[in-house]
Each structure stands twice: as C-alpha cells, then as structure tokens.
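Posting for a labmate who doesn't have an account.
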Amino acid sequence: MCRSIKTLRPPYAESVTEEDMRAAALQYVRKISGFRQPAPHNAAAFDKAVETIAAATGELLSTLEVRGGRIS
C-alpha cells in the first residue's frame, strides 16, 4: 500500500524505535487521508490517528512471535 513504510520486525529490522513506529504511522495516515499536512481544522484528528496507529504498531510488534521466539 505505502512503499515508504518499512518492515519493522526481525529479520528485516534488528531494532525498532518509537520514532520508527511513529514514522510508519505517519506515512500510513498520510496515505489513507490523502494529506501530507492536514489543514488546521483537521490537525487534531490527524495527530490522534498517528499516535493511535503508532501505539497499535508497538503492541503488535511486542506480541508477534517470529520463528518460535518472541520479539523484544
């Protein structure tokens, strides 16, 4: 869907930071909203979506199991 979002799990990424997860969430929200930068009246909704998706990404990555071992 969005080619600039990189895979954030091993073996594709050795370490993932909060910044990596937020960048991926931002790219996703930009893609689905069609806005690179939202208008001021949409900024709060845009920012909330980025934070929600970044949190969901962190939760997903912390619970995935790859080749029988949990990602930490």
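Reply:
Got it, the structure tokens are right above this. Strands lie at 65-66, 69-70.
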